[in-house]
Amino acid sequence: MAGRPLLSIFFAMALLVLANCQAALAGERFTDNGDGTVTDNELGLMWAKTDNQGDINWKEAQQWIQFTFPYSIPTTYENWRMPTLKELQSLAVKGKGYETACGQWVKIVPQLRLSCGWIWTSETGQLGPTATVFNYDNVYYYSVRKVHKRAYRALPVRNLD
Questions:
Q1: Average pLDDT of the chain to the nearest whole number
Q2: How many folded domains does the chain comprise?
Q3: What is the domain range of residue 109?
Q4: Which residues pair with 118 in a beta bridge?
Q5: What is the pTM of this model?
Q6: Are the C-beta atoms of 157 and 45 separated by less than 8 Å?
Q7: Nearest to 156 by CA among 120, 128, 104
Q8: CB-CB neighbours of 112 under 10 Å
């Protein structure tokens, strides 16, 4: 009987260690690679740490990601592309967020720094290309008939495998 309290203490300590390990792992979803990119360890993606820093239309966003961005960071990676709506939505967070350079408040993981809140997706629909808006309580997509560029940004992503 003397061993039961000791066994209970052991299990309580084991559960505490396990809970702390899970909390640490949850905080490590994103890794700053130190080269202008951030790895999403959960989804197996690599993101540009920042967007293109200026107004851009959908076609220009595609070209910037393919021909300009890869040469703006010190490490060479291949297969940069525009993100899907689902990938962008995975970056949304609850809470206050942060203010961008254009004055919009965005609710996106803090490891990525946007200059404005509207990010182009790779998807198009009947109304045209789509963008995700991070400056509202709920992230949603926005289709546009005209391919304009006011407040829209390009945020490159690539698959790790």
A1: 82
A2: 1
A3: 3-159
A4: 133, 152
A5: 0.77
A6: yes
A7: 120
A8: 20
